[in-house]
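Handout, page 2. Input:
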Amino acid sequence: MKVAIIDPVGIKAGMNCYDIGLLNALSKRGIQSFTFSNFNDKNFINVAQFDYFFKRKRSIPITILNYVYAHFKALAKCKRERIPWIILHVFSATSKDYFSFLLAKLFKIKVIGIIHDVSSLTGEDKSFFRSRIYSLSDVLVVHNEASKKSIESDLDNERRKKLLKIPHGNFIEFISKQTLDITFHGSLIFNPNYKYLLFFGQIKKVKGLDILLRAIPLLPEKFKIIIAGKPHRDDFSYYENIIKELNISDRVIKIIRFITDEERDFLFKKCDALILPYRKIFQSGVLMLAMSYGLPVIASDLTANKEIIEDGKNGILFADGSYQELALKVEKLFSQNMIDNIKRNTFSTAEHQYSWSVISEKYNNILDNNRFV
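Output:
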């Protein structure tokens, strides 16, 4: 049996870890695995990797040409290698996303569509393209029960039979055992007298960075926040204005750009907690990333978060949108000696409940004679 992932995003948004995590686990089950993306991780030589897509932004015409050409090249390679199944990721439903599915069906290759976001977090979805993506998929996968219930109403009875819930896997095997000494512009130095709260990833309105900023004045001076990531269809000046309004510029450390894997590793090992003040989310790779580091997480009590976090045991939840309660929960984490237990339970959850070994078995069932889990 053979399977491939075609992923134009890849390393640009950390999807390389998802792709390799899943395919590496499938390869251990005897399935030949291929990636067509924009990375080549030499630590996983049992996965055949082809970096056909651009790693960085180019001009719009050149980017479009690469997107189209790389898809044709990848699918042609799949046909030559007699790969019967490909996996495509779905974060939005636009003409660009639809193109990937349509072309795969024209090449007569079966498609597993992993619906990471049931609707786009940037408002760019078109209902026509989403319905077509669903109909062109031979199997649809979502990560949690909340997403499954949300999507079922858009499917007919036959399509619902092919809708499966398979969780997002952990990142443990991608975490370096050594911590590189990273120097950031502006000389970020971790002072043991402070506690550092991390906001990490693409900055979008729905991710609630403003909620975290408004919680800061309610916290003791020993708390600082690090914002690490770049805006995606968002204007960071909005947050700059909040920082000025609240007079907290001395407590906010800004790294507003793409964060490399080495820098991410450094930050997740050095910070004291990750804050996820999201207003809307269907799944969070950043949450699973933090748990893989054993980094305590404080997250809004959205349904997707509640499926993973047991409040007070392997993380902390706060009322969605309430910066006052967020501040209280931050103090609770550090004042009630909860942090060591939460660290242990957080890592244990990622290691045992969200291992790629367990998850790959479910995908193996799909590939094995089209037998569903």
